[in-house]
Structures are given as structure tokens and as C-alpha cells.
Task: structure prediction
Amino acid sequence: MEYSKGRSSGSKPSYPENSNIPRELWDGIAGYIETGYSSSGMHSPAAMYLTGFEPVLSTGFSQLLLEMISSRNIDDSDFYNAANLSRQVFNAIVNKPNYKPTKATALACAIGLQLNINDASILLRSAGYSFSNSNYTDMIVAYSLEHGYYDIIMINQIIYEYNEKPLGSL
Result:
């Protein structure tokens, strides 16, 4: 799949008039990316959690994800559909305790679980990742989580407009 739409890598897309992306969401993400700040006024998103960094995590990604699913009483199929994951990828996560997801899969899981930014950061760290304010996808997901937008299809449409690969495995 080709993600470039003819824009240079540094250019920002304009609002796609023929989409169903709410203008408020688009403008909020654009401002978030432009300034690199969260609604709380702190550098976003990575710098907000450096002070809470846990140097050693005893819980791997698979175990933590399954605990989060269980604690939210979410049906497995509801979760992997909300995260835009295939059943095969979900089964790999469940059956391989040392499963190492891609960052896109870990971000999709955070959206599928409707996590807040802090819990999403913990989930990412369990997979060896963190949010970066130099990555469009990270900034779009961080904004979405901070503002309660969990529709992965909508989030993927915005990510696509920024010439990035969509989240999930479908």
C-alpha cells in the first residue's frame, strides 16, 4: 500500500473536506502536533511520563494486555475488533508469553482498550516502546487517548492523511 500522496515528507496535510473526520478532532490533532504540547501544557507525550519511568517491568506485554482485558471485562473478540487486530495476531499474543508486538500493534491495543495516556504509556513500555513527540502516529494516538477518541477507523484515517501506516493488523 502506498502512503505518500505527493506531499513532501515534512509537509502537513490540510483538512480532507470529503472525509467524515470531525473538524474539531482534525484541528485538535493538528494543533497538538504543531506545538508538541498536551492540553495540560506539558511537552507531550513522552516527556510527561519520564519521571514515572519504571526501569524494570516484570510484566511482559502479553501478560499485561491480558490483565487489562480481563480487568475491563471485555470479550476477546470485542477487544481485537476494537483494536483492528486479526484473530491470528490476537491468538499469537495470547499463546506466546514473550510476544513482541510492533509499535503499531501496541498502539492499536491501547486504543482497543480505551486506555488513558498514562496506562497506554505503561502498555507501550511493556513492549519496549514509548510515545515520541517526533512521530506523527504517536502524536495522533496520544491526542486521541487524551481526548477520549477511540474509533480506530477514524484514527487510521487521520494517520493516513499524515502519510503514516495505519494501526492494527487488518
User: Anything to note?
Assistant: The mean pLDDT is 82.
